């Protein structure tokens, strides 16, 4: 398969989960990912949209594929799901394996500019350019022009910041317990200092020209998101989430910024789930709601497609 190697293929909910690896031009390392392809439709196949799931700190592309249970809901709508890794691995950068919340497993979905991380830690380019190009080349059944983003924790930050940095490129975005204001929380400050260098001066926080820190912070990005571009963001966070309680997520800061930017609940939906924590027990409990949400934008649920199919309870219901 050229640049992609299939290491294994596993039957899952009627579809197939492919475990893939390739030599990345973005990171300069070998990257692994999971790709779920739902079963073929009963009629002439149409290209299926893509949902990209971004995982959190310490995770790989395996975590959600095994514990998130997106697949049965993706099968309902005929949506392919990609589960990329969270960082380069084996880059050989000094110190990258020292801490669990920085370096290996903690790429934060940005392109580092600070040496020595600037050579390999290019996860923003990997997610936005290299990954879709690879899938377009090797999986013709996937429509890489119809893509939505979902993520958890650090991956929630990645999904939201990438969505907001690229107005109109992605059809929808959802996040579980996202790091919604990384410039203001310990996790984000540690990562951004390492990947970008020291924080911007306090006096420049409201500068017309955002600092590189602010360019990857959803709470700042939503302030300048163009009002004439569609917006669709869904967020869930558990009230018993220790990281939410300790100020790592700062979802309220994002909510406030969204309201001030005139993006109401019709565009940005935030739900606080009573008693739920930060784990995949939480993610899997509400993942159906998120897939249903994305299907509305990826497939136009309830609308008749050009090939005569009506998207309803199943992706190919007529």
UniProtKB/TrEMBL annotation:
Annotated function: Serine hydrolase involved in the detoxification of formaldehyde.
Presence of the UniProt keyword Hydrolase in the record: yes
Enzyme class: hydrolase
EC number: 3.1.2.12
Catalytic activities: S-formylglutathione + H2O = formate + glutathione + H(+)
Keywords linked to the UniProt accession: Cytoplasm, Hydrolase, Serine esterase
Gene3D superfamilies, per the entry: alpha/beta hydrolase
Positions annotated as active site in the UniProt record: 153 (charge relay system), 241 (charge relay system), 278 (charge relay system)
GO molecular function: carboxylic ester hydrolase activity; S-formylglutathione hydrolase activity
Source domain of life: Eukaryota
Keyword Hydrolase in annotation: yes
Organism classification: Eukaryota, Fungi, Dikarya, Ascomycota, Pezizomycotina
Protein name: S-formylglutathione hydrolase
A single cellular component GO annotation: cytosol
Major subcellular site: cytoplasm
Single biological process term from Gene Ontology: formaldehyde catabolic process
Subcellular localization(s) per the UniProt record: Cytoplasm
Record Pfam families: Esterase
Family: Belongs to the esterase D family.
């Amino acid at each position: 398969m050229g640049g992609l190697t299939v290491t294994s293929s596993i039957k899952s909910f009627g579809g197939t989960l492919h475990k893939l690896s390739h030599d990345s031009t973005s990171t300069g390392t070998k990257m692994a990912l999971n790709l779920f392809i739902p079963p073929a439709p009963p009629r002439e196949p149409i290209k299926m949209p893509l949902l990209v799931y971004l995982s959190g700190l310490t995770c790989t592309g395996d975590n959600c594929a095994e514990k998130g249970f997106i697949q049965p809901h993706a099968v309902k709508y005929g949506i392919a799901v990609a589960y990329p890794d969270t960082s380069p691995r084996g880059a050989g950068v000094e110190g990258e394996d020292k801490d669990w919340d920085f370096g290996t497993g903690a790429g934060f979905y940005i392109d580092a500019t600070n040496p020595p991380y600037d050579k390999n830690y290019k996860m923003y380019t990997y997610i936005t350019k290299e990954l879709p190009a690879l899938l377009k080349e090797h999986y013709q059944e996937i429509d890489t022009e119809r893509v939505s983003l979902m993520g958890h924790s650090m991956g929630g930050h990645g999904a939201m910041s990438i969505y907001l940095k690229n107005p109109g490129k992605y059809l929808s975005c959802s996040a579980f317990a996202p790091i919604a204001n990384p410039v203001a929380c310990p996790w984000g400050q540690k990562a951004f200092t390492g990947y970008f260098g020291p924080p911007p001066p306090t006096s420049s926080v409201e500068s017309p020209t955002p600092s590189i820190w602010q360019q990857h912070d959803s709470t700042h990005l939503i302030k300048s998101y163009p009002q004439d571009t569609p917006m669709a963001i869904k967020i869930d966070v558990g009230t018993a989430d220790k990281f939410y309680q300790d100020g790592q997520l700062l979802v309220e800061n994002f909510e406030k910024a969204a309201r001030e930017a005139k993006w109401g609940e019709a565009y940005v939906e935030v739900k606080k789930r009573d008693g739920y924590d930060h784990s995949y027990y939480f993610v899997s409990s509400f993942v159906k709601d998120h897939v249903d949400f994305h299907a509305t934008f990826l497939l136009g649920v309830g609308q008749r497609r050009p090939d005569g199919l009506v998207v309803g309870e199943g992706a190919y219901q007529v």
